[in-house]
Amino acid sequence: MDAKNTPIPVKGALKKFGQDLRDARKRRRIPMQLAAERAGISRATLDKIEKGDGGVSLGAYAKILFILRMILRLAELADPKFDELGLELETEHLPKRIRIPKKEREHLRKATGC
Q1: Is the CA virtual torsion 26, 12, 80, 39 positive or negative?
Q2: Is residue 32 one of the residues assigned to a domain?
């Protein structure tokens, strides 16, 4: 990722993410070399991940999440139920009225007795 074109909030989020992954690894008492070996990445790549380097592939980040047993969090990252803006926009476009075709209305009236 070109550092010059990376928005400041993205840099901050990646830095925090890297620090959080480092802290999670340390809480589990997993040495850096062992974590890298288990993830199938180099120690240098793990170092970049823990520093929040945007040039590291998402796959490498996912491997670290997997060995830390946090991979489900990645799977839910863009889950529609957590997409507040998307849900709000979707709600704005819901129809104001829902019309049932005349034939179906007549059938429903007969079936319900209304």
Answers
A1: negative
A2: yes
32, 25 in Cβ contact below 8 A?
Answer: yes
Q: Can you tell me the distance from the alpha carbon of 105 to that of 114, in angstroms, rounded to the nearest whole number?
A: 10
The SS3 of residue 64 is helix
93, amino acid identity: H
Going residue by residue through the chain, which has 114 residues, state the pLDDT in tens, using 9 for 90 and above. Answer: 566 789 999 999 999 999 999 999 999 999 999 999 999 999 999 999 999 999 999 999 999 999 999 999 998 988 888 888 888 888 777 777 778 888 887 877 777 776
The whole-angstrom separation of Cα 13 and Cα 35 is 22
> Is residue 69 a contact partner of residue 62, using CB atoms and an 8 Å limit?
no
CATH number at residue 63: 1.10.260.40
Predicted TM-score (pTM) of this structure: 0.72
Quote the domain boundaries for residue 50.
3-79
Residue 29 belongs to some domain of the structure = yes
